[in-house]
From TrEMBL:
Gene Ontology molecular-function annotations: hydrolase activity
PANTHER family per record: ACETYLORNITHINE DEACETYLASE, PEPTIDASE M20 DIMERISATION DOMAIN-CONTAINING PROTEIN
Organism field: Chloroflexus aggregans
UniProt-recorded name of the protein: Acetylornithine deacetylase
Lineage: Bacteria, Bacillati, Chloroflexota, Chloroflexia, Chloroflexales
InterPro entries given in the database record: Peptidase_M20, Peptidase_M20A
Length: 151
């Protein structure tokens, strides 16, 4: 990768690519559709991932009635339970922080005839991971977490 400087190359080398793909495959296998119990299951997996990467994890139940009552609240689907998860790397160091934001919910996969493979199983084709949520946004979330740990 000639277009990367030395530091960027070192960071990429430090990323556990196999672990990242394995974690993404685990998340893709959870059909975390908007408002379902699987959405919270995926949040728990993310919380465990954050802890495994050495981060301090804060989990909390979202006060949905208070949130729904707020005048600017907008939800596509109702939820019976909402789980918030935050990971903090280097919380004991003080100073500046980096916030990584993502989500694990998504809309239905649609007509399965339009999928080349099972949308609930991660499939690697030509070095790319395919499956429902791999792009929006479980893949981005996994990449951000693994990159943060690498640096």
């Amino acid at each position: 990768m000639q277009h990367l400087n030395h530091t960027e190359q070192r960071v990429l080398t430090a990323i556990d690519e196999a672990g990242l793909v394995e974690t993404l495959a685990r998340l893709v296998s959870i059909p975390s559709l908007d408002g379902t119990a699987a959405e919270n299951e995926a949040q728990e997996v993310v919380a465990d991932l954050l802890a495994a990467q050495g981060m301090t994890v804060d989990r909390w139940e979202i006060d949905l009635p208070a949130l729904y009552a707020h005048p600017v609240c907008s939800w596509e689907v109702p939820r019976e339970r909402g789980l918030g998860v935050v990971g903090i790397l280097g919380a004991d160091r003080g100073g500046r922080s980096l916030i990584l934001n993502g989500h694990v919910d998504f809309v239905p996969a649609g007509d399965p005839r339009y999928w080349r493979s099972d949308p609930w199983q991660a499939t690697v084709i030509d070095g790319r991971v395919y499956g429902r949520g791999a792009l929006d946004m479980k893949g981005g979330l996994c990449c951000a977490i693994f990159a943060a740990r690498a640096i």
